[in-house]
Design brief:
The structure is a single chain. This protein is α+β, with helices and mostly antiparallel strands and 340 residues long. It has nine helices and six strands. Strands 1-6-2-3-4-5 form a six-stranded antiparallel beta sheet. The longest helix has 67 residues. It starts with 11 loop residues before the first helix and ends with a strand.
């Protein structure tokens, strides 16, 4: 006969111990999966993010430059249109006085009716009426027609530029957001490191900068040009100034902001962004042919630029979180140089 006794229940203490052991094992497994990030790996990722941020910064700079130019163009066109409208009003007032005088005398010259016409071109094309227009009246009518055509053209051009301005402002906002997003990602990565690891990374950068500065020895090397020599001297006076995206000095810079500021101190106006600066001066294809004061461009899209300082070193505004410093040309993919 089958037994109907209840099965023996597991000991509560043993269940508790087993549960605690399993929980500890899961915790250890989770900790292993979330091991502390490798400092060097974090540095590589952060450097890549900074490079992406600088690429977006140059696009931001280009959009900002276009925006500033478009705003000037629109303002100028609107001013011209306002002045032209006033001139048109004055011309019409003059014809209005003539019309009143003729009305009082009992006859209005058909040519004066143009004052009331919305299409002076059509009226003037009617040659049968031109013989009834005095020389002075014809001149006034022609001036009104010309002024109306000019105003229409200016207003159309201003409208097109306003549309371009709206699109440029949208692009500007997009590039600014890209820069900020990349910088936020980089900060989040760095915050995964301990304070000691972050301090170690900072010390590595400072040591590399000091070593690069020690290697800068112009000696008897002639500068590439007098403008280049003056620009190099100006850039050297800003060693230690912080990198800030979109900044053009005098207290902070991005890469092309530093080069454009330095050459402006030498009396040379460079384009704002690195890609445009790459088309200035005489191109130098080999890094071995560089001379102090030459511009030096890096990466296939030319999003970074510095000034050659001699002995294989450039001075540049390197990246967010860093300051203007010397660095080896060989640390980045060299494209070409330019002698201004």
């Amino acid at each position: 006969m089958a037994s109907h006794r209840r099965p023996k229940q597991p000991n509560r203490a043993r269940v508790t111990v087993f549960t605690a052991t399993a929980a500890a094992a899961v915790a250890l497994s989770t900790q292993s999966a979330q091991a502390a990030p490798d400092k060097d790996d974090v540095k590589r990722q952060v450097d890549n993010l900074y490079e992406d941020a600088e690429r977006a910064t140059e696009k931001y700079n280009g959009a900002k430059e276009r925006q500033d130019k478009l705003e000037e163009d629109v303002e100028e066109l609107q001013d011209k249109a306002a002045r032209g409208q006033q001139e048109l009003n004055d011309l019409r007032d003059g014809l209005g006085s003539l019309a009143n005088a003729q009305y009082r005398s009992g006859s209005i010259d058909p040519s004066v009716q143009l004052f009331l016409s919305s299409d002076p071109d059509t009226y003037l094309d009617k040659a049968s009426t031109m013989d009834r227009v005095s020389g002075k009246q014809a001149e006034s009518l022609e001036r009104i027609a010309d002024k109306q055509r000019s105003l229409a053209q200016q207003r159309q051009e201003a409208g097109e530029k306003l549309k371009d301005l709206a699109e440029t402002r949208k692009e500007l906002g997009s590039q600014k957001k890209k820069v900020q997003d990349k910088l936020s990602e980089a900060r989040a990565l760095l915050n995964q490191l301990t304070e000691a690891e972050q301090a170690a990374l900072a010390e590595e950068e400072q040591r590399a900068s000091r070593e690069a500065e020690d290697r800068v020895d112009l000696g008897d090397l002639p500068p590439g040009s007098s403008h280049g020599a003056a620009a190099l001297s100006a850039a050297q006076s800003k060693l230690g100034a912080p990198y800030v995206y979109g900044a053009t000095g005098p207290s902070s810079f991005d890469c092309s902001g530093l080069t454009s500021w330095a050459f402006s101190q030498a009396g040379v106006s460079l384009p704002r962004i690195s890609q445009d600066q790459a088309n200035v001066g005489t191109r130098i294809s080999s890094s071995s042919a560089l001379q102090p004061g030459d511009l030096v461009f890096f990466y296939s899209d030319l999003h970074h630029v510095g000034i050659y300082a001699g002995n294989g070193q450039i001075i540049h505004a390197p990246k967010p979180g860093a300051s203007v410093r010397y660095e080896a040309v060989s640390n980045m993919p060299f494209m070409w140089g330019a002698r201004v």
